[in-house]
Each structure stands twice: as structure tokens, then as C-alpha cells.
Amino acid sequence: MAEVAVLGYGTVGSGVVEVIENNRDAISKRCEGLHVKYILDLREFPGDPYEDRVIHEFDPIVNDPEIKIVCETMGGATFAYKYTKACLEAGKSVCTSNKELVEKYGAELSRTAKENNCSYLFEASVGGGIPVIRTINEALTAENIESICGILNGTTNYILHRMETAGLDFDAALKEAQELGYAEKDPTADIEGHDPCRKIAILASLVCGKKVDYEQILMEGIKDLSITDIKYAKAADKSIKLIAKCEFKNGGCYSIVSPRMIDNSNPLAMVKDVFNAVLIHSDMLDDSMYYGRGAGKLATASAVVGDAVECANNIGKTINCGWSEEKAVLSDINELEQSYFVRVKNESIDAFKAAVKTKDRVIEGVAGGETGFFTESMAEGEFKKTIAALNGVVGYIRM
Ligand code: HSE
After folding, report:
1. 151 CB near ligand 1 (under 6 Å)
2. pTM of the model
3. Which one-letter DSSP state was computed for residue 367?
4. pLDDT-derived band of residue 251, with 50, 70 and 90 as boundaries?
5. Which of 183, 307, 310, 380 could form an S-S bond across to 187 if both were Cys, CB 3.0 to 4.6 Å?
6. Over the stretch 181-200, which tens digit does the pLDDT of each residue have?
7. Residue 195: CB within 6 Å of ligand 1?
8. Which residue in the list 68, 199, 238, 245 is annotated as catalytic?
9. What integer pLDDT is reported at residue 146 of this predicted model?
């Protein structure tokens, strides 16, 4: 039986304990078994079935030679960093759902793990319960991954889904997401795109084997999308999704998080509600998609415990994630070629069409006094420069 400590007894931490206890038999078939010895939290949990295991000090955990695996579900990058580093230095493997910590220090903590013959695993940090990191690191190792497009944030996918299916405006859909417990009281990280940006930075880092900083990624959230944009997408037989994307070409990596108007035939268009999905295009396999719950107590906890099982089977060894501390330099996003959907005031159509190559199909009658156009593929920088010099562009969405 491998003894486990859980750091942080919040939603995911309590889920980790629940998965280990409820699925004890299944887990024991796949490793020597897991047993939760300590739960670290500042709070008391009177009446909780595991309250006898709750402690308030970290030292007993790091100093206990019986503890081989630590599940870090505290969140944040200060105490979580300090405790993770100390555990790894003590030769204890750490499994986490903490995307902020992984994005910021994942490469360094992976090195620390290697130096101490243990592992730092973070499957739950991207796409919650969806096994996408193990897929990239193990199943797709014979492939050249050419692009990753992900719906990596459940809250914003829910908001867009409700705008599309119930005709709610952005504020009403956000309020509903908050009432249902999907969106935080302060929803900034989700709606402005920081959360999916961190997640795509982690995936891009794993693919290129270098550290992609999320601050380098062009990020646009969904808060400026209107119900009129959604109506345009519907009229065009398309859907609007917040897509976190990285494209590997010409030896570089382009990465961007932004709303996109995608064809309803694109498999990402069928990802509704709070679900997440990751569409990977690789050279031999072609497209493969990984779909499931990207958040939530048990889905996320399941991925943390799956990592703990892996660690239990590799005590004294390092499970390598092939991530180095060398900084990746992202390619200039202004070079990325894509099409755009553009809303243009009717009196400005001639000037717009003289400046931008458009497709024949137009969308009329969705909003008074304007028309929607689809551009031919053009570089991001060229597109932005062109429309900045035009009057009458109401808005645009990448495709
Ligand atoms: N706020 C995140 C989401 C939680 O809505 O997807 C999971 O990282």
C-alpha cells in the first residue's frame, strides 16, 4: 500500500480522497493500492469522515518516510510551489491539478523530480479528467503533432452554449454560470482567457519540449461577444467557441486563444455545455479528439488519482515528461494565416471589398444596416492593419 498525503481539502482535494476510498478495489488491481494518511488544510472539518487525517502543519508530511506520493490540490503558486518543491526534494512524487503552478514552474519542478528519482505529474491541470497529457507524452510519441485546438474552459463554453441555445446575452449567461457554480465570483480568469491560455501553454510546452510562457500568447476572451455575433454564426450554420490553439510549422510554434466561428461540421462544434475537448492534428494519425469533463470535483480528482497510481507503480523512478527549462520563442502571431468573419456597415461595403479579398457568400438581415463577410485566408498582421485603416467595420471573429 502506498501512503498518500493530500495538500488542500477543497473541492478537488476532497474529490481525491473520495476517489481513493470509493474506488479502492479498482485502484488495488492496478497498483499496490493507495491509502490517504494525511490531509493538509488550515481549516477544521468537524463531522467529515476523514477528519482524523486532517493536519495543519506541512512538516509531518515531508518528514514522513512512509509518504511516497503527494497530491497537491491547493491551487496558487506560492505555498503550492514551496511544498511541491520540498516534497520532490525529499523524493516524494507529486501529482497536481494546479495549472497555474504547472504553467509557471512545471519545467523546473520536473527537473527537481528527475534529480530526486521521483515524478511530477499534472494530467489534471489541462482538460480536467480528459487524459490529454498522457496521450501526448505516451500515445502520440510516433507522431509529429502539427496543431492542437482546444475548448479548454468549461465556464466559457457553457456561457457560449447558453447564448446560442437560449438566446441569453453574455451577462445573463455568465450570471447563470455563476449560479450553477461553474463560474467563479470573479470570473476574470475564465472570460478573459487566462485559464485556457495557461492550459494551451502547458500543451505547447510538452509538444515542443521547451517552456512556453502564457504571457507570450495572444489572448482574447469572450466578454465582447454579443448575441448578434451568435445570431450571425447561426445564420451561417456555424458556432462560436473559445479556441485555444497552437500550430507547429516552419520549425516554430504559433499560439493564440480567441473566439472563433467554426463550421458545424468541425468536431469541436458539438462540444456543448461545460464540456472540454482537444483536437490534435498529427502527421500519421491525422485528426484525433479527446472529449470529456474539463472541470468538476470527481472528474479532476480522477485524473490526479490516475497519476498517483502511475507514481505508485514507479516508486524510485522518474516518469519523464520531456519538458525542459529552455524558453520557447513563439513565432510572430502576425504571420498566422486564417480567415475572418467581418461585420461591415452597408455604406462601407465598397471600401471594405476593395481592401479585403472576400468569399462570395455574405450574411444579410441579421442586424440592421450591416452585412457579414467571410475573408479569404490572410495573415493576422495584414488583416489587422487593413481593417484599422477602414471605417465601418463593426467587428470581426477569427475562423
Ligand atoms: N475554471 C475552469 C473552467 C476550471 O471553467 O474550465 C477548470 O480548470
Report:
1. no
2. 0.96
3. S
4. confident
5. 183
6. 888 889 999 999 999 999 99
7. yes
8. 199
9. 98
Q: What are the residues facing 286 on neighbouring strands?
A: 282
Q: Give me the pLDDT at residue 217, please.
A: 98
Domain span holding position 44: 2-128+297-312
Burial of 220 per CB tally in 10 Å (0-12, 13-18, 19+): middle
Which three three-digit cell numbers place residue 108?
523546473
| pLDDT for the residue 8 | 97
Q: Does the pLDDT at position 322 exceed 80?
A: no
Q: Is the CB of 221 under 6 A from ligand 1?
A: no
Q: Is 310 in the pocket of ligand 1 (CB under 6 A)?
A: no
Identify the residue whose C-alpha is closest to ligand 1 atom 2: 153
pLDDT tier at 109, thresholds 50, 70, 90: very high
Report the C-alpha gap between 321 and 308 in whole angstroms. Answer: 15
Spatial distance between the Cα atoms of 396 and 341, rounded to a whole number of angstroms = 5
pLDDT band at 279 (very low <50, low <70, confident <90, very high): very high
Number of domains the chain is built from = 3
pLDDT, one tens digit per residue, over 324-380 is 899 999 999 999 999 999 999 999 999 999 999 999 999 999 999 999 999 999 999
N-term to C-term CA, the chain: 51
Angle, in degrees to the nearest 10, between helices 99-115 and 194-208? 30
Question: Domain holding 281: CATH number?
Answer: 3.30.360.10
| Cα–ligand 1 centroid distance for 139 (angstroms) | 25
- Give the distance (Å) from ligand 1 centre to CA of residue 274: 9
- Residue 285 confidence (pLDDT): 98
Residues 264 and 181 in one domain: yes
Quick one: 241 and 341 in the same domain? Answer: no
Burial class (CB in 10 A: 0-12, 13-18, 19+), 26: exposed
In the reported structure, the alpha carbon of residue 15 is separated from the centroid of ligand 1 by a whole-number distance in angstroms of 16
Residue 94: burial class (beta carbons within 10 Å; 0-12, 13-18, 19+)? buried
Residue 185 bears catalytic tag: no
* CATH number reported for the structural domain that contains residue 112 in this entry: 3.40.50.720
Residue 183: what pLDDT? Answer: 83
